[in-house]
């Protein structure tokens, strides 16, 4: 009869045959295979457990939503939508007539997040009386305290959720709580905190520019720009203040974008000072800003520093001179167009010349330049081509 | 009684408009998406259609052009409720024949006034 060489009976490893001894007696390849199978099985079991757990959580959540949302919707319909001035009751009385049992359910751990999400959804859909009453309801149910508690959580994602809820409900957050978060190491959190600060701070929405040491990433700038330009009744300061004093380059760059957007001509002298900055990227942006502001007083200085600048700054100078619309600069632009060996320089100089010359002058220039430059000029005469 | 069709995938807006406009004495029909909305117009004629622009199955522009061609809604006033702020999209809506464009978040009182004005007999 066949007998396996790996049966327990044939083991001679140690005195007492154990599973470990038996396992160690197996060839290495088999050992590796057994370990791999065990690990894979455990992993699959864990994944399956997670799937069941998430499904169960969703099932419970949906069950709760099905129960509590119709109650909340009925309450909102009866006491807010169909009855205006719901909160104009006598002082000291609850503004909403909510039975104690339902009030307790709304505040319970089981349901409060569902209630908060639903109220925020109403707030996003309706403004005016309904919007104001939703805020009152949120406060009366004490849900603002829940959101504030989230802000104190250790988890950054929970903090973000808290900030977002308070921002959506237009609840003021004390500077002492929100300002440190605008400079948090976690990019998502500081971005959320900055947006919230701009939306909620009534007096100095840009105060966090003073304290921020972390850079404003490009995406942060886009988000902030959207928040600043779409938030109503925001107090817009003179951004020259940060252009002059901020040590954070990204703040300075962002402020220059805002200076252009809000056409703050008073800020131009502060921007001119940046032409001496060591960072060529910041210099290029300052030149761009001056061009867009059409600050003609800076033109002689731009022409003066031109020869010492790297290519990106030179290109910005050529564009800026074109935007400023000063005819005196055309001679300089022509010189660069005719004699420069760099294609980009000739292209941008030509664009600025076309902007500031009449047809006769362009025809004259066309006759006197090389065939390649003629092509560049023709290209720039096409109004559909922009760069 | 004037018939109003509300086409919106947002159940909160559906619910609120249903309650408010029913209280104002209108007959309301609700549709949760463009497809449902287009099947609703086969059943009866409407005096006013309130529609969102971004919805599953059929977008608002497609619905508006179909409404304008259908005999049950060809003469109906159309109000668009949307959070779209793009000027071109709004202009496209007016070119297709919408009567009002209401931006979200909505002021419900203002919307009711616009509806009443649109449905009042013109002298």
Kindly summarize this structure in a few lines.
By secondary structure, chain A is mainly α. Chain A has 21 helices and one strand. The relative contact order of chain A is 0.04.
Helix fraction of chain B, binned, reads 40-55%
Secondary structure class of chain A reads mainly alpha
Indicate the proportion of strand residues of chain B.
Answer: 15-25%
The name CATH uses for the topology of chain B is Rossmann fold
Q: Order of strands across the widest beta sheet of chain B?
A: 2-1-3-4-5
Modified residues (4-aspartylphosphate) (chain B): 52
Protein name (chain B): Response regulator transcription factor
Domain Response regulatory (chain B): 3-119
Keywords (chain B): Phosphoprotein
Explain what the structure shows.
The complex is a heterodimer of chains A (387) and B (123). The N and C termini of chain A lie far apart (88 Å). Residues 85-93 of chain A have low confidence and may be disordered. Chain A has helices spanning 19-25, 28-81, 100-107, 112-125, 128-140, 143-151, 156-168, 175-178, 187-200, 208-211, 218-230, 240-245, 249-261, 268-273, 280-293, 299-305, 311-324, 330-339, 343-356, 359-368, 371-381; one strand at residues 126-127. In chain A, helix 6 (143-151) runs antiparallel to helix 7 and helix 17 runs parallel beside helix 19 (343-356). With 387 residues, chain A is mainly α. Helices cover 67% and strands 1% of the residues of chain A. Chain B has helices at 11-23, 34-43, 60-69, 87-96, 108-119; strands spanning 3-7, 27-31, 48-51, 77-82, 100-103, 106-107. Chain B is globular and about 35 Å long. The mean pLDDT of chain B is 90. The A-B interface holds A 73, 77, 81-82, 121-131 and B 10, 12-13, 15-16, 19-20, 23, 104-110.
